[in-house]
Specification:
Blueprint lengths: L2 H12 L3 H13 L3 H11 L3 H17 L6 H16 L2 H13 L3 H17 E3 L9 E7 L3 H10 L3 H15 L3 E6 L4 E8 L3 H14 L3 H6 L3 H12 L3 H7 L3 H7 L1 E2 L3 E2 L2 E2 L4 H29 L3 E6 L8 E6 L6 E5 L13 E6 L12 E5 L6 E6 L4 H15 L18 H14 L3 E5 L6 E4 L5 E4 L1 E7 L2 E10 L7 H13 L6 E6 L4 H9 L2 E5 L6 H18 L3 H31 L1
Parallel strand pairs: 10-11, 11-12, 18-19, 19-20
Antiparallel strand pairs: 1-2, 2-4, 3-4, 5-6, 6-7, 8-9, 9-10, 12-13, 14-17, 15-16, 17-18
């Protein structure tokens, strides 16, 4: 007998009406969890007699067909139950919508955020990859759904646990159960296909309630972000060694609206927050690489970014290689919650002072200031030649001027390379508060995703969070000895339109433009910056900074513009007074 025939026989024997279809569905999926089976049926409104009737019918059918109940038969029974429920999907969708509409405000809020978690976490059940009639949202060892609702509702676990499971089953939106093995506990939600559109609508409502989360994340420091990351990805002693407090204790004290509460984190936002952290890590990685490149180059090292942060790990790795020696791996983990696997020669770079640097054995430990603008502490726990090289490099880095300060080194403009010009632009964007800045460096082209697929190479790219809006800036650097003509401007304009993220601010920097090119660029929305005959790198940097600063000041409200002008006048007066005092000091010394 074919399994398809068995499926049809079971459907014919049991699927007499809507209630029998749901009873069959629940029994097929929860027969090994009898307590959850009875509870879900009761919450929806089915009695135990109907469940017993389904079980008896299945067993009698198998006995008549002389079939042994094994794994393969169990799978076919479950498929038959899913097919049976599908026959009444329109009726169940209508019932679910009616029941959702009658919920109290609190119950609907619970269901909204449960739907957001289910939408973000569901995977196709392994039995039904072919027709996708049933979905499972599952978490292992942590009840992510309940934890997420504790954050949103600012409630304790015991208050939420029974409430959310009851509402899911009562409305028919989904059915929960808990199972376990010797190693793990599984928290699973069964989602019938008829509920998917309703879940999507409710999830959108929940997203609107959490729409300011990204803005809140930008206001957090590295320790707070590390605590949240550790909540999602299981922190180890690294958090304690860097920040001087246990991760559990600190997360318990942290209360960030919609994100975390009393040790719980909102897993519905895990993807969004992870992407935010990935971008922040890679931004700091690129910034440190930009500053380390020349320092370590002088010491005979070649540098390369070999790994960037992604969904698997929130750190990046820079490889520093000196001819004839083993590579040194520099791990950049601004948000310190868990130590990665370390190679023999490793440098650990965190953000902030290191509470217990001695706990990181046989490595160099570096503590950077907020945003990786400078170096706070360097500790050598390896005591070898390579570690001394790294300590020297980071100490030299700490003595270098910050990106917001003009460099003391003067270099004639005619000797400017394209690297120098792009580094100047990167410095300016950092001074203006942009993040996620990527500038091209030797052998490391920056490429962004294109709308039609593939990648597009750019010179400099950055972003800045303004309220709930992310402001992207695109800068094209043309350090040419000839004038930039219209064809170049048209090419740059077309390039920006092909990017997945079209920048709100477009800048093109060159020594000179033809008159037509300048007019077309301005008409296309570019900020045009002509370097002309500047004589030093500092002059080029200051010119770019002044024009971009004037642009941002010019679009500010009049009161803010007036205040900026007054501050500038006061600054000029103070600088004049300082000059006079210096002259007097020299005169009397």
């Amino acid at each position: 007998m074919s399994t398809n025939s068995l499926r049809e026989i079971l459907k014919g024997a049991i699927c007499r009406d809507r209630d029998h279809a749901l009873a069959f569905f629940l029994w097929a999926f929860l027969k090994y969890e009898p307590e959850h089976l009875r509870q879900n049926a009761e919450w929806f409104g089915l009695n135990e007699r109907m469940l017993n009737d389904v079980e008896t019918t299945v067993k009698n059918t198998l006995e008549q067909l002389r079939l042994t109940y094994d794994f393969k038969i169990s799978e076919e029974i479950t498929r038959a139950a899913a097919d049976c429920l599908e026959n009444f999907s329109l009726e169940f969708e209508k019932i679910t919508k009616e029941r959702v509409s009658k919920l109290t405000d609190l119950e609907r809020r619970v269901l909204r955020h449960a739907s957001l978690w289910m939408r973000n976490m569901k995977t196709t059940h392994y039995l039904f990859n072919d027709d996708k009639k049933v979905f499972i949202a599952e978490s292992i060892d942590t009840n992510e759904l309940v934890d997420s609702l504790c954050v949103v509702l600012k409630a304790d676990y015991s208050q939420i646990y029974g409430l959310v499971y009851r509402i899911l089953a009562q409305t028919g939106l989904a059915f929960a159960y808990i199972s376990g093995s010797s190693r793990h506990t599984y928290y699973s939600i069964i989602i019938p296909r008829y509920a998917l559109s309703i879940i999507e609508e409710l999830a959108v409502e929940a997203e609107k309630e959490l729409q300011n989360v990204t803005e809140r994340l930008h206001n957090l420091n590295s320790m707070q972000l590390a605590a949240i990351a550790g909540g999602f990805f299981e922190a180890d002693n690294t958090f304690y060694n860097v920040y001087g407090i246990s991760h559990f204790e600190y997360l318990q004290s942290l209360n960030i609206e919609g994100v975390c509460y009393k040790g719980y984190v909102n897993y519905s936002l895990k993807g969004l927050i992870t992407n935010f952290l990935i971008e922040m890590v890679n931004e700091r990685c690129q910034r440190l690489y930009n500053r380390l490149y020349k320092v370590l180059k002088d010491q005979g090292y070649e540098l390369d970014i070999v790994d960037k942060a992604d969904n698997k790990h929130l750190y990046c790795r820079i490889k520093a290689v000196k001819p004839g020696q083993h590579a040194v791996i520099i791990y950049i983990e601004p948000f310190a919650y868990k130590l990665p696997f370390l190679y023999e020669k490793s440098v650990l770079v965190f953000e902030g002072p290191i509470a217990k640097p001695e706990e990181f054995k046989n490595v160099v430990v570096v503590g950077m200031s907020e945003g990786f603008g400078g170096v706070k502490v360097v500790v050598d726990n390896a005591g070898t030649s390579w570690s001394k090289d790294m300590v020297e490099a980071f100490n030299r880095l700490s003595l270098q001027p910050m990106p917001s300060e003009p460099s003391v080194q003067a270099k004639p403009a005619e000797e400017l390379s394209w690297e120098d010009l792009e580094e100047a632009v990167v410095d300016v964007l950092e001074r203006l508060g942009f993040r996620g800045i990527f500038g091209r460096r030797p052998d490391r082209d920056v490429k962004l995703d294109a709308r039609g697929g593939g990648k597009i190479e750019v010179d400099v790219w950055g972003w800045k969070q303004v309220g709930s809006t992310r402001l992207n800036i695109y800068v094209s650097c043309k350090n040419w000895n000839r004038d930039v003509d219209r064809s170049v401007v048209d090419e740059e304009f077309g390039r920006t339109l092909q990017l997945n993220e079209i920048p709100q601010i477009k800048v093109i920097v060159a020594k000179r433009f033809t008159d037509t090119a300048k007019k077309v660029a301005q008409a296309d929305g570019f900020i045009v910056i002509e370097l002309g005959d500047v004589s030093t790198v500092d002059e080029a940097r200051n010119l770019i900074y002044k024009q971009l600063r004037d642009f941002f000041t010019g679009i500010a409200p009049p009161d803010l513009q007036r205040l900026a002008n007054e501050v500038k006048q006061i600054t000029d007066k103070l600088r004049s007074i300082a000059d006079e005092m210096e002259k007097l000091s020299a005169y009397y010394s």
